[in-house]
Every structure is written in C-alpha cells, then in structure tokens.
TrEMBL record:
Entry EC no(s): 1.2.4.1
Designated name of the protein: Pyruvate dehydrogenase E1 component subunit beta
Keyword hit for Acetylation: no
Domain of life: Eukaryota
Cofactor: thiamine diphosphate
Residue stretches making up the Transketolase-like pyrimidine-binding domain: 1-74
Organism encoding this protein: Stylosanthes scabra
Pfam families reported for this sequence: Transket_pyr, Transketolase_C
Signal peptide location: none
Occurrences of domain Transketolase C-terminal (ranges): 94-216
Function as written in the Swiss-Prot or TrEMBL entry: The pyruvate dehydrogenase complex catalyzes the overall conversion of pyruvate to acetyl-CoA and CO2.
Keywords: Oxidoreductase, Pyruvate, Thiamine pyrophosphate
Amino acid sequence: MSAGQISVPIVFRGPNGAAAGVGAQHSQCYAAWFAACPGLKVLTPYSSEDARGLLKAAIRDPDPVVFLENELLYGESFPVSAEVLDSSFCLPIGKAKIEREGKDVTITAYSKMVGYALKAADILAKEGISAEVINLRSIRPLDRSTINASVRKTNRLVTVEESFPQHGVGAEICTSVVEESFGYLDAPVERIAGADVPMPYAANLERMAVPQVEDIVRAAKRTCHRSVPLAATA
C-alpha cells in the first residue's frame, strides 16, 4: 500500500499441520490460506537445515514472513553439515531443493510430507521407478522454475500436501505446470492431499484423513502406468 516506502520486518512463527490426537482444534494445515495473501512470504521447513537457513532469511527479510513448522518434526533428527552450522549460513527465500534426483516422476512436497515423499521414493526405486523429490521450502514465493524444469525431465507429476485439496498448494502447482509445461506431460497430474473434512480425533480416522506413504506410492505408480487407474476401480 505504501509502494515500497514502508517495510514491515516481522516474522510469524508457529506450528502448522496435523499433530497427533488433538482433533480439528489443533491439527489443520493452513499454508494455502496464508499463501493466498499478496505481500506475505510463507516458508515451510522440513529439515534442520531448512529451519536454520530459512528462519535466518525470514528474520533478515524486510517484509512480513509466515514461518510454518510441523510440530511432529520437532522430535526428529537430521544430519547437519559443517556448512549449515556456520554462522553465515542462510537459505534464499523462494528457492526449492531437489532432495532426490530422478527421471520417471516428479514428487513435490513441503514440511513433514517431504519425509513421506522420500520414503515413497525408496519404495518406488525397488520397483524400478526413479522418483525426483522436490522440497518446496517456500510456498510463497513458489519456485515454479524448479518444478517445471523437473516435470519437463520426468514428464509426470505428483503433488503432496497435508492441507485440504480445494484451493490448495498442490492445485496451484498443477496450474503452473499445465500453463507452462502441459506439452511435456505423459500422464494426468496426481494430487495427494488431506481429506476434505475437519481433522478427526480418533487415531484410526486421523490416519485416514492425512496422506500416507502408500498413497504417494500408488499415485506415482498410476502416473507411470504401473497400476489400475482410479476410474477403472470406481
């Protein structure tokens, strides 16, 4: 509104996404809500490297940044290099990271779902499918160039997120690929997201409401024509 004359260097940091057994009051992913606001930057770290590098970038940024952490990742450990521990280490906002290179299918994910995507890639590799896993890191700005470059190489796309499917991050990625790389697609895009319901409290229903590793595996296999399409089993 000030045409760049006034900066608002503030970081809103907090947990986001499904927790465990706390129902709809505490287990929703609102990354897409924040990312819909022009002017906001939205970061979603997965690893210790992401958390350190992106938080420093957020604090140094002159604009408002929403920093969304999955609280279930607080208890996980990640390898950390000497470079990451260096006091000067910082990551650029708006740049995704290719966590695993592949040639058959691209899988995009953010926050906790990156770990699920990597586990799915391990399973797919045993079946001869080479999956490229992209850790988005930043939801807004979104690294469209990295995503589209990967899809133009693999010719297939699976998007993964904990959030609701409607108006989600995956929907935005699908649109970007259709607009910029449609001619490179060899199969329909697969979108894996949380169920379109408030988060259930019961553990068995909660598991059904959030994406699982096997969901990603099945979707990737469908894009590679290794399984029966959903329409054929409906």
